[in-house]
Specification:
single chain; about 140 residues; alpha/beta; Rossmann fold; 4-stranded mixed beta sheet; PG/BPGM_mutase_AS; His_Pase_superF_clade-1
Length: about 140
Amino acid sequence: MDTTAAQFPYPWQRCKLIHLVRHGQAMHNVEGDINREALLSPHLFDAELSPLGLQQVSKLRKEAHARGLRRRVDLVVTSPLYRLWTRPEQEIAIVSHGIILQHILYVLGNDLDPTDRSTLRQRFGNCELRSVLIVDKR
């Protein structure tokens, strides 16, 4: 008997597993660490990945492959707009900037225990992958 499924109080059809991924370090991150004003520079608007960022992406690619995400993820989006939540897919990857991902977790964590909420809302590291199970409690 699968006791894990028996203990979960919501049907899996009402759940979505969300994988949140922050981009790897880009040149705007490097320049912004030196001078915050550099983040406003037009030449950094679509900045390339830094050498460290390329290493981070390579490491994350290997981790995602080892976890089998490529075979399981039904949808990859780069926009966390409302239309994402109305999609029929059950396992979704959102790739975006850390501040966008943090905002998503801020909104989703409102009904959590304060300790869990603060853990969930920690700042994303470059090229960090975080998975969260979302439940529609209606």
